[in-house]
């Protein structure tokens, strides 16, 4: 069955190469950080961001268990990625919402996410992509979803291509995955 993470994983497998530099903008429990670290290999680098200590600890543990050492785990908001990332990147992955298994009150916010996406576009290489999976529901994430979708809709079509993948016939607010590339 096709899941949102399969869409992002497809793009990672197709476009991310050994020695690339990539960003996991919302580290969470580290699964995307691990995928990205494996994709870029020892010669590449992953910058992974989260504002919660538990996310950094969970990710650190997962990477140690898998003998991964090419990821910088950064306890800071993704909207500050420009303070850490100075080079061009091939891929930026966002999973919006709250930490799975964590406090639902601590979730990504529209303003900081849009700032982070703008900064990601600034460091994105011409052959790179940004993946944004938007999780939302009746009690969380709707304002952020509406804000980022409006932002994407207004990106200059001459500069960017925006692909929105919607699980149209699924109940209960299925996540949306958005892929952005530079033209």
Provide a concise account of the structure shown.
By secondary structure, the chain is an alpha/beta fold. The protein is 33% helix and 26% strand.
Describe this structure in words.
The chain has 183 residues and is of the alpha/beta class. The chain is built from five helices and seven strands, in the order αβαβαββαβαββ. The chain has helices at 4-15, 31-40, 53-65, 110-123, 142-153, and strands at residues 21-24, 45-50, 71-75, 89-96, 124-134, 160-166, 176-182. The chain has a seven-stranded mixed β-sheet, with helices on both faces. α3 (53-65) links the parallel β2 (45-50) and β3 (71-75). α4 (110-123) runs parallel beside α5. The longest helix is centred in the middle third of the chain and has 14 residues, at 110-123. It is globular. It starts with a helix and ends with a strand. The model has no long low-confidence stretch (mean pLDDT 94).
Oligomer: single chain
Overall average pLDDT: 94
Helix content: 25-40%
- The fraction of residues assigned to DSSP E strands is 25-35%
- Give the distance, in angstroms, between the N- and C-terminal Cα atoms: 31 Å
Tally of contiguous helical segments: 5
* Form type: globular
Strand order in the sheet with the most strands: 3-2-1-4-5-7-6
CA-atom Rg in angstroms: 15 Å
The succession of helices and strands, N to C, reads HEHEHEEHEHEE
Largest sheet: 7 strands, mixed
Please identify the structural class as seen in this structure: alpha/beta
Number of β-strand runs: 7
As residue ranges, the low-confidence spans are: none
